[in-house]
Here is the input.
Amino acid sequence: MAYVATRGGERAIEQSERLYRAAMGDITEQRVDEVKAAMPYLIDRVMGEASLYDEDLAALALAQTGGELFEAVLALRAWRTTQPRLQVAAPIAQDQLFTHRRISAAFKDIPGGQVLGPTLDYSHRILATDVLNGATYAPEKVEAADKPSSAYQPSVAAWQAENDLLDLPVPDDTKPEDIPDVTREPLLFPSKRAHTLQSLARSETGGALALGYAAMRGYGQAHPTVNELRLAEAEIAVTHPNGTTFSAGRVKVSQAEVVSKKGEKLELGFAATLGWNEVKCISAATLDLNSKGAEKGSATEEEFYLYHTEGVESSGFCIHFKLPHYVTFQSSLDAMRDAKAKKSPKPEPAQ
Amino acid sequence: MDRPHSEILSILARSKGAALKAFGETLIPQLGDIDVQKSQTGLVMLPMRDTAQGTAFHLGEVLVSEAQIKRGDLQGYGMRKGRDLEAAMAMALVDLAMQSDMATEDCHAFVSAQKQLQDAEDHTTLCEVEATRVDMETF
Here is the structure.
């Protein structure tokens, strides 16, 4: 491939950016607040893919890019690099999550019961078109129970282990500072499991769904059943200079376990992300479940799905094709013309 | 009420910013000269433990505000989710005041009031969550 330096178009570039931003108009603090309040699930998706949790910044990124998700995630990831890392928190564990939603599709009577939490799973998807005629859509209020749900729900897997249905893993006691970090180390294959799960946590939702869906439809080794799906809040356990550990606040997290019914014991696939994003977690857990022994180049092979669900890299590669490729393209055209010329019969010389 | 240092810090970190800043402001005259060592935003990496194979991995980073102040040998510290430097500084002021045995009663009262608010908020949330519990019948 050859590149050539070109000049020109400075004014056009400047005006094109203005034209893009003109569509959004003035970005104010009020607009950012409105975006944050109106679209919490979109904010969660952006924070998860950017692997940066801050609702205000995510709302600002969405407002500033007009909701172009790839641009919003890129802006957040870029901003993240301007900040120092102050601490690594203590690892969060499933049974320490302040749980809003916890369901299992595999077992009906799980310890702690099935708690639906916030969901549209069982709702009719009907647009409230009256709003467009001036009416206000006011959602009906939740009729709260008299007694609270338990904040901390037990793990379904622990109960399954008690019933000899699966083997619980040995907990990884790696110090938080020593956990492999894909933002500071290259992703090499076969990938460290910590890298795999971190990459899936920051993967692009649509990419994870596309490849996970391929596995669900049969292009994988195992059909998933949701063993446990949890939407929750996790404490950020940080350390005071005198050594006291405390929570710096809570962040929303989601996690999914999917289970394969092959063999004598159940086998789990796992994924989690910042924010509440069920589709991504179930899809990513399906990829995790299917990756063992996957054929090279298949949708469920680790190298394939980790590279192709990285949203900033994939969208960046895609849009780079819009940039001038005049030299390479011209060179290909020259080769085509040359081949055509050689193939054409030469005119017979006049007798 | 004697609360562990860990619990006090957790309550302060989750307190509403405006209330914390207003209370922190009242402690400044009593604390006198303090040395501000840190007042910055930054990231805290949040790891999680996978339930399938037990591996610890990074979920992503959380934006926090951090403040560290010193008065003599005592250090006050604040770290809160979000980008409110003044709230983090107010948290450090309360921490320093409590460690210096200053305005102890007021500080405990503030912490208790915030704890009550936080418990009430959690209670409301969990009562709403409980309303979504499924009682399944098997045919």
Residues 105 and 226 of chain A are 5 Å apart (CA to CA). The mean pLDDT of chain A is 93.
